[in-house]
Amino acid sequence: MSKDTEKKADKLTFEEALERLEKIVRALEEGNVALENSLSLFEEGTKLVRFCTKKIDSAEQKVKILTEKNGTVTEEDFLKK
């Protein structure tokens, strides 16, 4: 993926990136793509996976669990690392 394409990928929503990734997977699975183009699609797909993973990780960090103990509501991280 070129620098220009990477900049465009950063502006994608999670859903748009996932949709593009699904198209890349379908194209590669069909096997009708030239080797050089396959490598390019694979590289783009790898970057989209990283982008989606960062978005998911960021969302997980924001999720909190509200618990009630003895009438007091507290919040704690959903994922304790």
Describe it for me?
This protein has about 80 residues and is of the alpha+beta class. It has one domain. It contains 3 helices and 2 strands. The protein has a two-stranded antiparallel sheet with strand order 1-2. Strand 1 and strand 2 form a beta hairpin. About 5% of the residues are buried.
Span between termini: 33 Å
Q: C-alpha Rg, in Å?
A: 19 Å
Mean of residue pLDDT? Answer: 84
The description of the largest β-sheet is: 2 strands, antiparallel
Would you list the SSEs in sequence order as H and E?
Answer: HHHEE
Question: What share of residues is helical?
Answer: 55-70%
Quaternary structure classification: single chain
* Low-pLDDT segments, ≥5 res: none
**Helix segment tally:** 3
Output the structural class. Answer: alpha+beta
When the domains are counted, the total is 1
Strand content: 5-15%
Work out the number of β strands: 2
Keywords:
alpha+beta, 65% helix, rod-shaped, single chain, 81 residues
Provide a concise account of the structure shown.
The protein has 81 residues and is an alpha+beta fold. Helix content is 65%, strand content 15%.
What topology emerges from the helices and strands here?
Elements: H1 3-10, H2 14-30, H3 35-62, E1 64-69, E2 72-77
Antiparallel strand pairs: 1-2
